[in-house]
Structures are given as structure tokens and as C-alpha cells.
Write the C-alpha cells for this entry.
Amino acid sequence: MSATSTHTCGLISLAILTILCVHVNSEPWIPEAADVQYGSLDCNVTLACSSPWPRSLAEWRLNGSTPVPEQTVLGSDGGLTLVNAKQHMGGIYSCHDEKGNVVHAVKLYLGRAPEPLNVSCRMANHFVVRCSWKPLVNTYLPSKFIATYRNDDLVATCHQEPSQPNECTIGNPFAWWHTVTMNITEVNPLGSASTRILLQFHKLLRPDPPEAVTTEPVAGQPRKLRVSWRYPSSWPQSRAFPLLFQLRYRPVGSNIWSERSTTDTNVTITDVVSGHPHLIQVQAGDELSFGSWSEWSPELQALPWIVEASPPTKEDPAYNLFTEPITVESTEPPPEDHRNVGVLVCLGLLAGVILLMLCTLIILLWMRQKRRDCMMKRELASMMSMQHVKI
Ligand SMILES: *[C@@H]1O[C@H](CO)[C@@H](O)[C@H](O)[C@H]1NC(C)=O
Ligand SMILES: *[C@@H]1O[C@H](CO)[C@@H](O)[C@H](O)[C@H]1NC(C)=O
Ligand SMILES: *[C@@H]1O[C@H](CO)[C@@H](O)[C@H](O)[C@H]1NC(C)=O
């Protein structure tokens, strides 16, 4: 980048450019016509009281009535010098004769000559180069910009829209792998400055980030997330120039991104942390690796499908996934086994109790039978003894 600046400090001898008609109806003291003069800020600016014939000069006035600022020196020829002119000293200066008539009037604008600009160019696709620039200093004066580019001996104009004075575009760069020198020249009444930058189209290419990035959980899949997006609208949608995409994601709270590359505009991630929100971003790059990657799309937060939302059944494929311990080393049996052991113990106890009751019943029955037998024997014996007595 280099610049040439025709900055003229010191006595401002800038040619008086045009005659400006000052229309002031309510205040008749203001001169009907005044010359226009531009002066550099922080320099000495001299205003001449030029007159076609010799006149005796009485005084200078600012804006018709105000006395001129204190930091002024009256020259022997009647000229007025503003020492180290400041912004507030601008206005209409008029020199008057003894009768109060205007001898000469000058409209003074104070500002600065242009300085090198901050120019940057980008190529959001293969078909257009867009350059924009920003002045690094405020010149306080109207500027015009001339934008040209040069490839070997060929000089062409970079197209400017009147509505975008700080921008220009090169449509269909004739050979986009070429190198061109961009030359932006700012011109104002106090001078001009050119800023040149070297453009290498194959390095300049940088797509815009992918658009409309969305994510959705996959039903029944607590470790999956579906992510989709669109080609940036500034990129040809025809797919004649395919884009490569890079997707990155991390659980909220972690600093480590996982990355995936694809030429598709959707991807299903299969290794997210269950039940945890994740941050997701996508970037785009030319598939043939020209230029550089786009910026990352804004961070998007997404939560995978959670099991609490709708409890799975044993038939559900997610059931096993979820009940499976996440860490392989874990030896804790799943809660399902606890329940089975409980049921088994209960059943065992019940069987034992029933068996015990059955045994007791059998023993009781047996004892009762035995007692009845004894009684019958005893009755028989007593009956026999009674018969014996009768006999
Ligand atoms: C401006 O004018 C003042 C007063 O006449 C003088 O002292 C000073 O050196 C001048 N400055 C320049 C840059 O000419
Ligand atoms: C004189 O008028 C100009 C506008 O023409 C204004 O910017 C400036 O502040 C005025 N100066 C004074 C001292 O009133
Ligand atoms: C840049 O453009 C300006 C305005 O067209 C021209 O005067 C100047 O010579 C150019 N500079 C170069 C190095 O081409």
C-alpha cells in the first residue's frame, strides 16, 4: 500500500474555484455572491481583499456581522491571515470599506487533504469482487473516489454505485486466478491520495457462512442430533461450484470441539452426550480449496432427544441404549435385575410359608387320627369289659 498526497500546508493559495451564489433573503447584509475558498486546518490561511480598483479598507467581518476571530493577522495589502485555522473559524468572510460596503467576500471551508484509505476487498463467490474503503481521518470536505484496477497494462474501472460511494465491484473478473492492483484515489479540494492494494483472486475467495442452520433431535435417539443448513445466498445455487462444509459441535461447558466435513447440507451426528445441550456451528469453503473458509455460522444450541420426555418400552430400540451404562467399566447391575431378585425372594418366601402350613396341617391331621384310634380302642376295651361284667 502506498499513497501520494498533495497536501499543501502554509499559505493557502488554492485557486478560487467557483462563484457561489448565497441566497439570503432575510439578512440583506450578506454579500449576494462570495468566492469559495478551502483552507487546511491547523495551517495559516490567508484571505485576500481583492478589488478591481483601489479602495480604502475599514474592516473584516465574519458571517456579515461578527468580528473576525482573535487569531488573525491583517496584512499590509489588506489580506487577512487566520493563524492555525480551527474548525470553528469557517464561514463567510467579507472586507468592507469605510462606508460599510462589501469590497470582497469569501466563503471559507476548513478541512484536510485526503490521506490513505483503509481498503478491503472480498469475493463471496467466483463472479464478483467487492471492495470497500473507509477514510482514516475526517477531512470535513466533500470527497470523490476514483477506483481502478490494473492487470499488466490493462487498466479498468471498478464499478461504483452512486448510492454506495465507498464501495466498488468488479463483475466477472476476466481471469480470476490473476493478480490485479486495485487503486482507490480520494480527491477533495485540498488534494488527493491514492491507496493501492494487490488482489490475488484465488486467495481472496471466501464464501459467506452457511445460512438457515437448524438442528432437531432424532426421536428415540438420545445420542443423535440432525443438523441442516443452506448454501449462502451469495453463492451460486446451481452447484456448478460445490461447497465443502465443516460442522463442529461440543457439549455446553466443554472446550473441545468435534468436527465433521461434508458436501451435503445436512448431517446426523451420532455421538452427542445424552441429555446434554450442545453448541453447533457450520462453515463453508470452496470444494477445490481456493481461498479460505467462511466465518463460522452463529453458535446454535441444541438438546438431543431426552428419555424423560416419553418413557420408552422394552420394544423401543432406545430402551436398551438408555439402560446400558455409558461407561463400560461400570459393574453395577441395571435396576431391572434388582426387581427380579426381589420377586424371586418373595416367591421363595411364599412357597416356604405354604409348605410350612401344609406340613403343620398334615401333622395335625395325623395326630387327630391317632387320638381317635386310641379312643376307639379304649371304648372297645371298656365295652368288652362291660359285657364281661354282664356275663
Ligand atoms: C503562521 O502565522 C504565524 C503568525 O504570522 C507565524 O508565527 C507562523 O510561523 C505561521 N505558521 C506557518 C506554518 O506558516
Ligand atoms: C458562520 O457561518 C457558518 C455557516 O456558514 C457557521 O458554520 C459558523 O459557525 C459561523 N461562524 C460564526 C462565528 O458565527
Ligand atoms: C491511481 O489512480 C489515480 C486516479 O486515477 C491516478 O492518478 C494514479 O496515477 C493511479 N496510481 C497508480 C499507481 O496507478
Confidence is low (pLDDT under 50) at residues 1-28, 318-337.
